[in-house]
Design brief:
Distance between the termini of chain A: 38 Å
Number of helices of chain A: 11
CATH topology of one domain in chain A: Tetracycline Repressor, domain 2
Radius of gyration of chain A: 19 Å
Number of strands of chain A: 0
Strand content of chain A: under 5%
Shape of chain A: globular
Helix content of chain A: over 70%
CATH superfamily of one domain in chain A: Tetracycline Repressor, domain 2
Largest sheet of chain A: none
Structural class of chain A: mainly alpha
Order of helices and strands of chain A: HHHHHHHHHHH
Oligomer: homodimer
Largest interface: A-B, 52 and 53 residues
Amino acid sequence: MDLVPREEPEAADPRQRLLNAAYRVFAEKGLQGARTRDIAARAGVNLAMLHYYYRSKEELYAQVLTPLYREVFSRLDSVLSGPGDPRDRLEAAVSVYFDFLKRYPSLPRLVMWELASGAQVLRGVFAGLLDPASGSLFHHFRRLFQEGREQGIFRDTPPEQAIISTVALIIFPFAARDLLTAALPGVADQPEFIERRRRHVLDLLMRGLGEEGHNP
Amino acid sequence: MDLVPREEPEAADPRQRLLNAAYRVFAEKGLQGARTRDIAARAGVNLAMLHYYYRSKEELYAQVLTPLYREVFSRLDSVLSGPGDPRDRLEAAVSVYFDFLKRYPSLPRLVMWELASGAQVLRGVFAGLLDPASGSLFHHFRRLFQEGREQGIFRDTPPEQAIISTVALIIFPFAARDLLTAALPGVADQPEFIERRRRHVLDLLMRGLGEEGHNP
DNA sequence: GTCTATATCCTGATAGAC
DNA sequence: GTCTATCAGGATATAGAC
């Protein structure tokens, strides 16, 4: 947990300061665009130390992303496989992500770079999570929608499409925040945007996927 | 229209071949990751010619993206401001994008790179489109949802949120296609995926945004 | 562990002959 | 318009003193 970069100014350990700085620089510029000099400078650490602790830029990149992904997935997993009816579980899963967003505002942008470049690190983390015994994130998600359908709460929607839509609705606006601010001034640049967005996403999903007559 | 890159193998004009190659390389690697040498090589054109026709890598990048954005926006604009009830217009707008996707499969990835890096080109095109007289894309979109609400077709949803969600649902899955293929094998890697996705998006939007009792 | 200095490679861009 | 050759700058990464 100590390896997880925080968006906090101070940190004692130079290893941690490098991770914090790398988190910010990678979010801004991506893996290719980031300069190891910048990261070292922002961390207040000598450039040579960056290579001493983390062999290469790519390894540092992976060390920044992997713990973040792991933590999100772990929390999602426990919420999705937990108790509660499908509706509540979906709502909890969405909220997990939005809460995470408050702690790591740059995460969507980081994910965006990853996706554009082929998502190698993310795919690696996924591969490590594919526990054939318990199934995984997607298994839980699928089960959620199937149960919901059996109980007459959700309509008959392909679970894969529902999963994709859920993720898209959550991640996209925050990754595209710069554009939104330019195109729709006064929307995404407000502090209340996260909460507004959370409510809208939940509403859209519940109504869009839910069986009529089961809406709050 | 000749400047719009096509994903076709052959082209006579070296200018056009450079645009075609640049379209592919930029989609794969992004602006920073792309190498002018690669683009020239893929185009079968000498590296010096790339700089002869397009002064810099950045200018080539802009020349690839601008016509694409312009065309999408122009088509969306005419569909959104056209006749038909709000429901039909929304459906037509979504379809415009999906049709475009069939011609330019790499466009979402290109957009993804843009968004991650701050969307400078996209914002430039937007600024050029902001015709204060006629309003613009977003104006039409807003009007669509407002009309729909007045007619009792759409529920009372913040138009900005509806716009964001529409774009997110359409773009995201195709930009994240590599990841989806890894995480959900047999879903996004099928040729029917575009059509499946189109149907799901329309269904989700209509039910999610529509007033109950107005669903087909 | 920390620093300075530097090797080595690669990149975008151009000069200049044809 | 097209090519070869090359420049100048900047990048990652390391060697080696302390």
